[in-house]
From TrEMBL, chain A:
Chain coiled-coil ranges: none
Protein name (record): Branched-chain amino acid ABC transporter permease
Subcellular location: Cell membrane
Pfam families cross-referenced by the UniProt entry: BPD_transp_2
Primary subcellular site in the record, as a coarse category: membrane
Record key words, sorted: Cell membrane, Membrane, Transmembrane, Transmembrane helix
Organism: Brevifollis gellanilyticus
UniProtKB/TrEMBL annotation, chain B:
A single BP term in Gene Ontology: L-amino acid transport
Pfam families (UniProt xref): ABC_tran (PF00005)
Ranges of residues in domain ABC transporter: 2-235
Family membership: Belongs to the ABC transporter superfamily.
CDD domains according to UniProt: ABC_TM1139_LivF_branched (cd03224)
Organism for this UniProt entry: Brevifollis gellanilyticus
Protein name: ABC transporter ATP-binding protein
Keyword annotations from UniProtKB, A to Z: Amino-acid transport, ATP-binding, Nucleotide-binding, Transport
UniProtKB/TrEMBL annotation, chain C:
Stretches assigned to coiled coil: none
Organism: Brevifollis gellanilyticus
Protein name: Branched-chain amino acid ABC transporter permease
Gene that produces this protein: livH
Primary residence: membrane
Subcellular location(s) of the protein: Cell membrane
MF terms in GO: L-isoleucine transmembrane transporter activity; L-leucine transmembrane transporter activity; L-phenylalanine transmembrane transporter activity; L-valine transmembrane transporter activity
Membrane topology: Multi-pass membrane protein
Cellular component terms (Gene Ontology): plasma membrane
Keywords, in A-Z order: Amino-acid transport, Cell inner membrane, Cell membrane, Membrane, Transmembrane, Transmembrane helix, Transport
Pfam families: BPD_transp_2 (PF02653)
């Protein structure tokens, strides 16, 4: 990853390009058919998820298998807020409500991220992976038993607020925030922690703060993605946030090359499109997908778009 | 008996051995001396198959054994007592010795060799049912040597047997190394930092520096060599 | 009091199955230091093997019967041991020197691959199939307590297998070699131990136990389906961590504790819906406060 300040400009350029693109595309959103529109929004949401998980798994070298859990917290929170509040508001204020609901969902997810970030201070590698997996499952179990959010039967009738503009605007913000965070002087610490924690701490970098920051920030954006997802599908069910969803996001990060934002974005796009392309082989879709994971780990654990990094830098 | 020719080994992009050649005649004790990082342990590890070599050859009893897997090399009665002893801490002394005899099925022979191990290192008999990890460093070194003897070696490679061991036990261990060589006719390739001690019991010696053999001679001559005395014998 | 005893019996039966599965996780972790996610699927394959073998066996030995049940189980055990060894050979052996997380994700991939392949209509299909009756069933009534013969079979089989496993690991050359390999692979190789063979043996042994666990689990369950291994697999994995991963008595103890806790929680109204959450909650607490597990020794992370 380049360390020159030019890259920081690059991050800003990303933001600008993203927002302009989002605005332009959303003007034409009437032209797309519903199916294509849906897939494109899915792509945007997955970009947010993958880029935010990349902060935890890629840049900071932690390992979370519970990203779907954060997404669930954000999604359910935002959905519940808009379900309760939207009937009381005039149409003009609805976008404001949406933004508020998204942020609230993100904040609650960030709180959950703090909860998971703290154990990460004591655990490493596969143990941490399991704790995050367990955490994701606990969230799912809680949601499944919470009558206020529809329990196992799910939450229905969520207003359709999510648009192309919102999705890609927020995706651009996510990318901007994560890249500039990692490339700031403060953010050098993330990479230092991921490279060698002991050495980092001996240089006065506090690994604790970085790990928790990564979890909190990553969870916040996963929560935002959850909110977008809720107001896109208009229906939430606990099974949508299971272990498999977390694996999906992890695979995007690995495929893109841990710690490489551009690669992760491309991977998110590819992996969202893959099931759509395989739709006519739907019987074999998941078999192919699982084989893909195995082959990827054997052939290119460093990601598809990484050439100059040492092999298997996971 | 053991001949190493132009051995090259690298760890990733770092070359650890730049063409090391050695000859260990049958029945002799040969010592490799050299500073930390000179490549002594690497040489032994490459011979015993723990690491792959890039080029060069290892010939043992007339057979090319270069890059064979470690467990097959042991079967040819060429045994390696690694640096840091590596006894199985979770196994008892008796279990460790039985693992040394892993490739054997002759119960009587195993029992006889175990008795022999107990005669040269009586302390091990006292600790027979104790977990190896609870013993002192010197006792663990004794166990490591005894364990290697259980595989009926014809040639034994010892890596730093004196490292981190009380001086009184070092003496006992070196006395037994000489005894094993004399009584059982074992060929021994010894790696030591304590050059004085090692050359004192050896017939021949090699001096390694940054992955190369820079000097070889009879042990007696090396002990008198001013260059060696200055660099390794603390004169 | 009766309620307590009843839950105790049910919990022991459930915990025994968890213990059998947990042993497989812990053995593999002991020699390779990674979590074999596909272990839960081997359990499912064990149940399916019995499902397909039972009709063939019943043409030779009548079913349900003890001989028939033993014959069916033996064949399933052999099939599953083979599958376990094959999984290691194809998927994990090529990754032996890679970072542990790479192997972990591969293991998840293997698990998903088995599950989705088996769900395919050309393989087993996703539907639930009735499990054949292997043993005559009978309920024993002791006062108000009901003990089913299946529960007794589960507990007795587990005890026998635990004793057998203890013998193999503590008293045979192969078992001692397993312990040696799990402590230090290089030193083990220097003893002439073929590491790959020991690892294959470990996978075979763990998978054999999983096959039996799968059959026992299926005998108590309403039917079998390709995802039947997931839940008991997760619990057993938690049990292995609870007892101290890599530690065999720990896995057995962890399995029993988890089975009992879960049964008692399930018997208390209001808690029963949170069974999954409870298991994971225990896992997280253990990892936070005693990461080495109940019987595990604290180990320093190797750099």
């Amino acid at each position: 990853m380049s360390s020159s300040p030019a890259f920081l400009n690059g991050a800003k350029r990303w933001l600008l390009v993203g927002i302009v693109l989002a605005a332009v595309v959303s003007m034409f959103s009437g032209q797309f058919n519903r199916y294509h529109l849906g897939v494109i929004v899915d792509i945007g949401i997955n970009i947010i998820l993958a880029v935010s998980l990349n902060l935890i798994n890629g840049h900071t070298g932690q390992f979370s298998l519970g990203h779907a859990g954060f997404m669930a917290v954000g999604g359910y929170t935002a959905a519940k807020i808009s379900l309760v509040v939207s009937p009381m508001l005039p149409p003009a204020l609805q976008p404001l409500l949406f933004l508020g609901a998204l942020i609230a969902g993100g904040l609650l997810a960030a709180l959950a991220g703090f909860g998971v970030g703290v154990p990460s201070l004591r655990l490493k590698g596969d143990y941490l992976a399991i704790v995050t997996l367990g955490f994701g499952e606990i969230i799912r179990v809680i949601v499944q038993n919470m009558e206020a959010v529809g329990a196992a039967s799910g939450l229905k009738g969520i207003p359709k607020y999510t648009t192309l503009g919102w999705t890609f605007g927020l995706a651009a913000v996510t990318i901007y925030f994560v890249t500039s965070l990692v490339n700031s002087t403060y953010g050098r610490g993330f990479i230092a922690v991921s490279d060698d924690e002991v050495a980092a701490s001996s240089m006065g970098i506090n690994p604790v703060r970085y790990k928790v920051t990564a979890f909190v920030t990553g969870a916040f954006f996963a929560g935002i993605a959850g909110g977008l997802y809720a107001h896109h599908k208009q229906f939430l069910s606990p099974t949508g946030f299971d272990f498999l969803k977390s694996i999906d996001i992890v695979v995007m990060v690995i495929l893109g090359g841990m710690g490489r934002t551009a690669g992760v974005v491309v991977a998110a796009i590819l992996l969202t499109l893959l099931p759509e392309v395989l739709r006519q082989f739907s019987e074999y879709r998941m078999i192919i997908y699982s084989l893909l994971i195995i082959i990827l780990m054997m052939a290119r654990p460093q990601g598809l778009f990484t050439w100059n990094r040492k092999k298997g830098a996971a | 008996m053991l001949e190493v020719k132009d051995l090259e080994v690298s760890y990733g992009s770092i070359k650890a051995l730049h063409g090391v050649s050695l000859n260990v005649p049958q029945g002799s004790i040969v010592t490799l001396i050299g500073a930390n990082g000179a490549g002594k342990s690497t040489t032994l590890r490459a011979i015993s198959g723990l690491i792959k070599t890039r080029s060069g050859s290892v010939t043992y009893s007339g057979e090319d054994i270069t890059n064979q897997p470690a467990h097959k090399i042991v079967a040819k009665h060429l045994c390696h007592v690694p640096e840091g002893r590596m006894v199985f801490a979770n196994l008892t002394v008796a279990e460790n010795l039985r693992m040394g005899a892993y490739l054997r099925n002759d119960k009587a022979g195993i029992a006889a060799d175990m008795d022999y191990a107990f005669t040269i290192f009586p302390r091990l008999k006292e600790r027979i049912n104790q977990a190896a990890g609870t013993m002192s460093g010197g006792e663990q070194q004794m166990l490591a040597i005894a364990r290697a003897l259980m595989s009926q070696p014809k040639c034994l490679m010892l890596d730093e047997p004196s490292l981190g061991i009380a001086p009184i036990l070092v003496r006992a261990i070196f006395d037994q190394i000489v005894a094993i060589n004399k009584e059982r006719g074992l060929t021994i390739l010894l790696v030591e930092q304590n050059a004085n001690l090692a050359l004192g019991i050896s017939h021949h010696g090699y001096v390694l520096e940054t992955g190369r053999v820079i000097l070889e001679d009879s042990a007696a001559a090396l002990l008198k060599n001013p260059q060696v005395r200055a660099a390794y014998l603390g004169d | 009091m009766d309620w307590l005893l009843q839950q105790l019996i049910n919990g022991l039966a459930l915990g025994s199955i968890y213990a059998l599965i947990a042993l497989g996780y812990t053995m593999v972790y002991g020699v390779l230091r990674f979590i074999n996610f596909a272990h839960a699927d081997v359990l499912m394959l064990g149940a399916y093997a019995a499902y397909f073998v039972a009709p063939a066996v019943s043409s030779v030995v009548p079913l349900p019967s003890l001989t028939g049940a033993i014959l069916v189980s033996l064949i399933s055990v052999i099939i599953c041991a083979g599958i376990g060894i094959l999984i290691e050979f194809l998927a994990y052996r090529p990754l032996r020197k890679r970072p542990r997380l790479t192997v972990l994700i591969t293991a998840i991939g293997v698990s998903l691959f088995i599950e989705f392949t088996c769900q395919h209509s050309a393989v087993f299909g996703a539907d639930t199939k009735p499990f054949p009756k292997l043993l005559p069933e009978h309920d024993f009534h002791l006062g108000k307590l009901v003990v089913s013969s299946n529960d007794l079979v589960v507990v007795v089989t587990t005890l026998l297998l635990l004793a057998g496993l203890w013998f193999i690991v503590q008293r045979t050359k192969m078992g001692t070699a397993m312990r040696a390999v799990s402590h230090n692979q290089q030193a083990a190789a220097l003893m002439g131990i073929n590491i790959n063979r020991i690892i294959s043996f470990t996978f075979g042994l763990g998978s054999a136990l999983a096959a039996i666990a799968g059959i026992l689990y299926a005998m108590k369950a309403p039917g079998i389906d390709p995802l039947m291994g997931v839940q008991p697999g997760l619990r057993a994995f938690i049990a292995a961590v609870l007892g101290g991963i890599g530690n065999l008595p720990g896995a057995a103890l962890g399995g029993l504790i988890l089975g009992l806790l879960e049964t008692f929680a399930g018997g208390i109204s209001g808690l029963s819906n949170y069974r999954d959450g409870i298991a994971f909650g225990i896992l997280i607490l253990i990892l936070l406060f005693k990461p080495a597990g109940l019987l595990g020794k604290a180990t320093v992370e190797k750099v």
